[in-house]
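Action item from last meeting closed. Structure (396 res):
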C-alpha cells in the first residue's frame, strides 16, 4: 500500500510551472496545506481542482517545495536507490569511473539529477555530501547505505559537509564529519595535475570541480606567458598555467588559508623551484595598484549577486572587475572571466563585460563561451541550474 503524504493545494493557475516539470513550488503559489507540516516532510502537490501534480520536500521559505517526482508512487528505499543509480550510471557513461587521468567529479548535481537540495562530490573515492534542504539531509543514513551498496569498493570514506548549507530556519544543529570511514589526507588527480582537498575547511565541498574543463582549456593559452590568477582559492588555474609552460604565474586571494593551500598545491606539482608568487590581498585593490601588465588574466570571483535584490549591484561589480582586468592586459592578451551567480543570466554577464570593454576602451573578441561540465548536468526544465557562465576573450 502506498503511503499517504501531506497534501498541498495550489492557487488557480499556479500549476503551470509544475506541469512544465519545473522542480520548485514557490510559497506564493500555495493556497492551502491540509494539515500541520514540518520542514523536511514529504508532500504531494495538487492543483486547485484537486489533480495530483508532483511530490517533493517541504521547507518554510520562498521555495516551499523541492520536487523530485511527478507521479504518485512509493517514496521508499527502492525509490531513492533508483535515483542514485541513475546519477551513477550517467557518470559511468561519461567515463568518470576507473579513469586513470581523473578521479575528481560531481556524482549528484541536485536538480540536474532530480535530487533537488543534494550535492555529492567525489574526491578519489571519498564522496562528500552537501545537503541544501532538511528533507535531503534526513535521508543521509539511507544515502550512505545505498552509495556503499551501489559503488562497493570504490568508496574509501564518506564525509557530510552540510552544516553551513542547510537553510537558516532549520531547527537543529549538525556538524561536518566523516559518517563512514576516514581519510587523513585526500589528494586527487585532475588531468595529470594533483591537488590537496581540504573537505573540512575548504570552500564548497573542498574544490571547485565545476571549473575542471575550463582549467584544462587554459593550458592552451599560457606557454611563455605572464599569468595572473585572481580569486585563486587553492590555485587550480595556477597549476594548469604553470604545467603548460607559463613564464610566471601570480595567484591572488584575500584568504590567507586559500593562499596557503595554493602554495601547498604548487609545491605538490612542481617542488619549490617554480616561477610562482602568491599574494594575500583584496583583488580590486591589487588590480588598482599594478605597475605591470599580464598576458593572461583569470577572473573567477565569488557570486557578486546571490539574490534578485542584489542583481543590479552585482552586475556593476562584474563590469568594474572586468574593466580593471582589461586595463591590465598586454595587447593580444587573453581574459578568462566568469560569473557563478545563478540569477545573473548569460546575456546579463555578457552585457556587463561589454560595458567593461567600452569603459576600458579595449577591442575585445569572444573566443569561447563557457559553462559547467557534464558531471554538473542541467535539467532542461530548470534553466536556473546553469549557474556558471564564462567567456574567453582576446584583447587587442
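Sequence:
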Amino acid at each position: 500500500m502506498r503511503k499517504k503524504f501531506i497534501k498541498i493545494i495550489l492557487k488557480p493557475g499556479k500549476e503551470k510551472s509544475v506541469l512544465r516539470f519545473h522542480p520548485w513550488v514557490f510559497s506564493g503559489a500555495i493556497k492551502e496545506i491540509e494539515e500541520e507540516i514540518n520542514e523536511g516532510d514529504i508532500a504531494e502537490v495538487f492543483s486547485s481542482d484537486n489533480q495530483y501534480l508532483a511530490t517533493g520536500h517541504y521547507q518554510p521559505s520562498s521555495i516551499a517545495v523541492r520536487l523530485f517526482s511527478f507521479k504518485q508512487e512509493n517514496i521508499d528505499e527502492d525509490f531513492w536507490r533508483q535515483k542514485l543509480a541513475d546519477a551513477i550510471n550517467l557518470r559511468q557513461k561519461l567515463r568518470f569511473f576507473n579513469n586513470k587521468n581523473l578521479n575528481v567529479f560531481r556524482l549528484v548535481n541536485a536538480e540536474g539529477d532530480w535530487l533537488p537540495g543534494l550535492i555529492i562530490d567525489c574526491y578519489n573515492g571519498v564522496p562528500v555530501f552537501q545537503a541544501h534542504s532538511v528533507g535531503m539531509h534526513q535521508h543521509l543514513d539511507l544515502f550512505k547505505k545505498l552509495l556503499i551498496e551501489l559503488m562497493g569498493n570504490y568508496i574509501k570514506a564518506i564525509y557530510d559537509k552540510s552544516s553551513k548549507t542547510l537553510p537558516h530556519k532549520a531547527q537543529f544543529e549538525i556538524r561536518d564529519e566523516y559518517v563512514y570511514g576516514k581519510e587523513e589526507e585526500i589528494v586527487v588527480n585532475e588531468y595529470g595535475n594533483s591537488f590537496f582537498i581540504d573537505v573540512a575547511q575548504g570552500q564548497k565541498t573542498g574544490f571547485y570541480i565545476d571549473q575542471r574543463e575550463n582549467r584544462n582549456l587554459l593550458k592552451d593559452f599560457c606557454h611563455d606567458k605572464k599569468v595572473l590568477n585572481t580569486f585563486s582559492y587553492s590555485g587550480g588555474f595556477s597549476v594548469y598555467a604553470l604545467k603548460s609552460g607559463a613564464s610566471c604565474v601570480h595567484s591572488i586571494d584575500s584568504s590567507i588559508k586559500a593562499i596557503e593551500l595554493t602554495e601547498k598545491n604548487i609545491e605538490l606539482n612542481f617542488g619549490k623551484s617554480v616561477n610562482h608568487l602568491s599574494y594575500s590581498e583584496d583583488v580590486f585593490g591589487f588590480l588598482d595598484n599594478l605597475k605591470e601588465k599580464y598576458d593572461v588574466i583569470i577572473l573567477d570571483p565569488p557570486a557578486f549577486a546571490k539574490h534578485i535584490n542584489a542583481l543590479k549591484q552585482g552586475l556593476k561589480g562584474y563590469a568594474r572587475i572586468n574593466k580593471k582586468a582589461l586595463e591590465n592586459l598586454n595587447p593580444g592578451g587573453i581574459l578568462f572571466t566568469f560569473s557563478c551567480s545563478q540569477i545573473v543570466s548569460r546575456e546579463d554577464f555578457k552585457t556587463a563585460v561589454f560595458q567593461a570593454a567600452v569603459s576600458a576602451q579595449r577591442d575585445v573578441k569572444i573566443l569561447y563561451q563557457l559553462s559547467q561540465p557534464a558531471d554538473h548536468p542541467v535539467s532542461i526544465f530548470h534553466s536556473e541550474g546553469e549557474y556558471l557562465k564564462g567567456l574567453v576573450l582576446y584583447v587587442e
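Note appended to the action item: Residues 6-69 form a domain with the Archaeosine Trna-guanine Transglycosylase; Chain: A, domain 4 fold (CATH 2.30.130.10).
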